[in-house]
Amino acid sequence: MREFSEEILNRLLAEDEVKEGGKVEDKQLDKVENESLVKTLNSTMLRILENADPNDMLCVLFDLLIKNRRRITNYSKILGLIIKCILKLTKALEQLINVIQPEKILLKSHLYLLEFGTDPSKLGEDIGIKTIKTILNELVKLYKERIWEFYAKSVQTHPRQDNYIHK
Fold it and tell me: Does 23 have pLDDT greater than 70?
């Protein structure tokens, strides 16, 4: 699922670049075909987000966020697409409360923060960290004090200590 989701996101980005007049190695499509393709890719990604297991999808998106953030030192279009997908799932958390596994989200957030949260002066600027704050706030709204049970099962048992998530 990771490779498929990544491919859809990359194709969306490539088609968007064609639409904006950028250069892409693939054969250029005319404007109508390009717009149709972008709509189809958007629709496909939305269906994936709506129908895939939300836990698996969030894990895939966090993995892609980390992978692409390693390559790119600042904000880029691919990071923006990944973050839009994470935020779309975040908006649906309340409806997914019976299937969501907060410990997975907490652990993926922890892994991102370990890797990219090292510079305290840039914590407020990093788009990934802002996204993590948003999703963690939603989890706290849903689970209230129970969130610490999930934290204890995931982040507290991780070999590397958490320096970011606190009561």
Answer: no
